[in-house]
Amino acid sequence: MTSRAQFSLGKLVITPNASLRLVTEEVLTALRRHASGDWGDLCPEDMQTNDTALNNGGRLFSAYGEGRSRFWIITEDDQLVTTVLLPEDY
Predict the structure, then answer these.
(1) What is the DSSP letter of 13?
(2) Rg of the chain's alpha carbons, rounded to an integer?
(3) pLDDT at 3
(4) b (16+ CB within 10 A) / e for 55-76
(5) Tens digits of per-residue pLDDT, 46-68?
(6) How far apart, in whole angstroms, are the C-alpha atoms of residue 25 and residue 22?
(7) Are 30 and 64 in contact (CB under 8 A)?
(8) pLDDT surpasses 80 at 2
(9) pLDDT in tens, 3-28
(10) What pLDDT shows up at residue 57?
């Protein structure tokens, strides 16, 4: 099942650290999930914040993976740039 994108990702960037440690296919799958409004493994409050930002404008944040493979995706509020990064890159 493919979900439809809810917003533009803009320019995609990935930190050097994330590029070295993450599996490309997992990142691409997560980007599709992020763009469709599936925020990954977040607490309910953060999911609600994203849902509000999606409707009213604001930064969008998702988290995927576990342990050393955990990574974040952040789309800036203007939707011009989406960054894939590891938590320690923030």
Answers:
(1) E
(2) 12
(3) 76
(4) eeeeebbbbbbeeeeebbbbbe
(5) 999 999 999 999 999 999 999 99
(6) 9
(7) yes
(8) no
(9) 789 999 999 999 999 999 999 999 99
(10) 94
Distance CA 18, CA 80 (A): 20
Q: What is the three-class DSSP state of 61?
A: strand
Name beta bridge partners: 40: 63
Per DSSP, the residues of 63-85 read EE--GGG-EEEEE-TTSSEEEEE
CA distance 5 to 13: 18
Q: Does residue 47 contact residue 38 with C-beta atoms inside 8 Å?
A: no
Strands (E), the chain: 11-14, 60-64, 71-75, 81-85
